[in-house]
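1st attempt posting a full record on here, be nice pls
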Amino acid sequence: SSCRADDAIAASSTLMGKKPKAGATRERNRGSRRREEYDDDSDDRRRGPSYYSFFNEDTRKMDSYPFGLEGPALRMQARYTLPAVLIVYGFWCCVVVGMLVSFGLGSLSLMTTAMWLLHAFFVCGCFWFRLRPAASTEALFHFWALPMVHGLHWAVLAQVCLYGRSKASLWDRWGSSMGDYMLLAQLPDFVLLFVPAVAISVYAWWESEFVALSFYDLHSQLLPEHMWLNWAFHLFSPALPLALWCFTCNARVMSDLPNVHPFVFAASCFLANAPMLHFCAYAPMLRYFGTVRWDSEQWTVWLTPLRFQSRNAA
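the predicted structure (as tokens):
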């Protein structure tokens, strides 16, 4: 079109007896190119940003970017467990329940037995939600139970090792006379105290994405002045089952924890729950915004843009 315009201008100038100027022709060519570039840009503006979507078959997770890669993402994910992981959960659930059935619940005067009973309830609950998915109910379960069970395991481990009685000494002193009442004391402290604490910590790390989503959904509904109360409750919630055990089952004679030191217990709860809550719940949930849409087996949530996305967009 620009060539035809130049030819027309040259022809008209020749007929009028004037010679066309080369500079004017170049300016007209530049202007026509600018108009073509502007038209292309306006077409891109009308079309809007590109739409991208990524799907992960292993985790059943899809991230959609309706406003381009530099914008927020809409995540839709199904609650899915790999068969190997489901086998591990089922095996550990059988181990925990089998120990309680084999050793009996008559020795609830041992804090270790009460702790294993609470551990069994938590493990069975997690395994049940794996078999019968209910994402919103499972989120409530993790929000209230995970910090309590996790902090209790590590706090009891610290209390028994510092101020309590080992299971070997209890078995040597009362094992022959009490019989089935002290069967649990035959196992070493490493198996009874350290192994379940590590198992809960590994579970919190493995499920950190769902734990963060659970805490975000409930934590974001609180008023700003109530959020610090929620944080304090999760830090020291292991004191609730400990207080219940002290007032109902602690005989102070044949017990692995005759006396509880409140400051040591509170410090142990803080040191155990603070890193877990930070790395598995509160730090990862900073990427979420908006409300969480729960379904029976899946959920939908918005994700803020990552930093490298903003830098690339700029």
